[in-house]
Amino acid sequence: MYRDGVQVARTEMALPPDVPYGFTALPQYTTERLLAEELHRHGGRIERSTELVDFSQDADGVSLRLRTPTGDEVVRTAYLVGADGAHSVVRKGLGLSFAGDAFPEEYMLGDVVVDWTMPPGYAVRCTRRGPDGAEDGLVAIPLPGRGRYRLSMLAPPELRRPAAGGSADGIVHGLEAGEPPAVHHLQAVVDRLSPEPATVSDLRWSSVFRISHRLVDRYGIGRVFVAGDAAHIHPPTGGQGMNTGIQDALNLAWKLALVVDGLAASSALPLRVHVVVAPELGAAFADAGEPCLVDSAGDLAAAYGMRGGDAVLIRPDGYVGWTARPVTAAALGAHLAVLTGVLDLSESPGQVPQ
Ligand SMILES: Cc1cc2nc3c(=O)[nH]c(=O)nc-3n(C[C@H](O)[C@H](O)[C@H](O)COP(=O)(O)OP(=O)(O)OC[C@H]3O[C@@H](n4cnc5c(N)ncnc54)[C@H](O)[C@@H]3O)c2cc1C
């Protein structure tokens, strides 16, 4: 990290060996290829040029109206997961709110080769405060390839677009249409901020983008769900959007699989779920109206390292949000009070199985 051309920090981001994949920076086309291959491996396929126009649901399923190159068709499915991005038709069709706002800044990105003496494999962050007090910044993330980086920085005035830029729903997020940055735009920022003279070349891809912060009020209604950018958009400081979106999908998928396999009732399909091993603990959560999965087969218990009296909460995004090992009346009461906003079982510990 450099401030005003002077190195102020250097962080080694080594991870413990039990973290499976470490830090991986892949170009988007590689990520898309890997995801498509995995989908094919599981028997799925992508139907390009096929648009969901609208949908309706009833107790037994969901009817989708699709627009294809050969005309409209109606498809009936058991469930619908809208992973259709920030302008999601599924989210709008469900009438979910998407509270938040756009950040005023506009940024630009470019995949380029940078000729400098920075050590390979390190991200480089350079900031400088201008005479007007405004912070100017450049972030260079290493990509596979000799000297190749993704540069990210504020867009210059000549590349900026009006805030509502062509978006009918008023949501501005992601790459913007229009003139992409050229090498000279990126070089100008590097000249201003790099701690040493550096040359930018071999521009492979560039774009201007905006960031918003928005979140749905709930992740689904009935048989229809949203995942990924359809459900939440945020800057990278709030989490890597693709990674968090994949975690939504993973978390939803295993729960849907339980329902499809007849192991859970769809009416009880929980997006936030507590997992316990002991059936009597399940009753305590059920009394509080909180979704609870009693893992009698022990699969989840093994995955989460649980014993009989333990409870874990798996959040909608798939993360473990709370653990109690073992559950005490006070801990459970305090936890449920936070979740429900009303219930505090710590006042009546007799309700909680020991
Ligand atoms: C500049 C930039 C850099 C980023 N870098 C990273 C990063 O390094 N790491 C990371 O984890 N995340 C990153 N993100 C975030 C990441 O790109 C998104 O979070 C991620 O792409 C969201 O995936 P998604 O599938 O939910 O939505 P999208 O990627 O928006 O995909 C939605 C898909 O649905 C399709 N679609 C939309 N409407 C319909 C419809 N009605 N019918 C049929 N199909 C439809 C769209 O065509 C699109 O293919 C970055 C984002 C930006 C803007």
Q: Tell me the number of structural domains.
A: 3
Q: What's the order of the H and E elements?
A: EEHEEEEHEEEEEHEEEEHEHEHEEH
Q: Describe the sheet with the most strands.
A: 9 strands, mixed
Question: What overall geometry do the principal axes of the alpha carbons give?
Answer: globular
Number of helices: 7
Give the rounded overall mean pLDDT.
86
Distinct ligands = flavin-adenine dinucleotide
Query: Quick one: how many beta strands?
Result: 19
Our estimate of the beta-strand percent is 25-35%
**The named CATH superfamily of the largest domain:** D-Amino Acid Oxidase, subunit A, domain 2
Short description:
The chain has helices at residues 28-41, 89-94, 183-193, 241-260, 279-287, 299-304, 329-340, and strands spanning 2-3, 6-7, 51-57, 62-68, 71-77, 80-82, 98-115, 124-129, 135-142, 148-154, 174-176, 199-216, 220-221, 224-226, 232-233, 273-276, 292-294, 311-314, 320-324.
